[in-house]
Amino acid sequence: MSWTDTSLLVIDTSYGSTVGLPGREPCIETDSRSHVERLQVNIAKVMDQAGLSADDLRTIVVGLGPAPFTGLRAGIVTAKALAFTTGARLLGQDILEPQARYAYSRFKQQGQDHARLLVLAVNDARRRQLYYRLFDDFGGAEAPARPLTEMSIDYPAAICEKIAAIAEERESMDQDPVTLVISGHGATRYADQWERLDQHSDMRVVLDEGSFLEDRTRGTGLMAACATRRAQHGLIDPVEPLYLRRPDVSVPNPLKHVAVQS
Fold this sequence. Notes:
Elements: E1 8-12, E2 17-20, E3 27-29, H1 39-49, E4 59-63, H2 69-86, E5 89-93, H3 96-109, E6 116-124, E7 130-137, E8 146-147, E9 152-154, H4 156-174, E10 178-184, H5 191-198, E11 204-209, H6 217-232
Parallel strand pairs: 1-4, 4-5, 6-10, 10-11
Antiparallel strand pairs: 1-2, 2-3, 6-7, 7-8, 7-9
């Protein structure tokens, strides 16, 4: 199946909401106060504009995050319900791999010189934290990207320490300077923290703010391509939200036993 197939619908609510068919103009909502309420309206809108009905869908690609709770869950529940009613295949895709691929391709298109390129894909996790994953090998057009770290959440200062250690190891192995592209929502918000990495020996840091999905048709096409590529390699992710943060509620302490006097 080609990722340009219009029988494939992309739904993502990791940051605002994006609904689109690859190759066609998507509906993007950035207002966090209304994007969930408009999700089903926008799905109907993009389908109508393409002259398609829900029964024409063969595949639904839904963003799994990582992202905060409420908006992310709304998109996944909607995608599951739509897949159930139409019989379409449902594929989950985290947003950090396509974000990294997007940053990598943009950097390469600029023709900038680099010996060793690392991409840190991030998404704003609120509470002064970031969701993140580090990549260094994009495996060509037909293979999934290879991450250097697990997907995680942390404070920018702690992320800097981890990235500096990895970059130092890479430099010692390759004897080449490292260029690090930090891409996604929150990349420029913590510019003062990333300055620590600039001070690292021979490391160059490039900041790239914003989501790949804001590039509209290119973004939804990239999301679809990543999901279908992973499926072709047998990498089927559970369609469950990636919060990566422990819930605020905690298990209450057991009730104290009160001695009963006779």
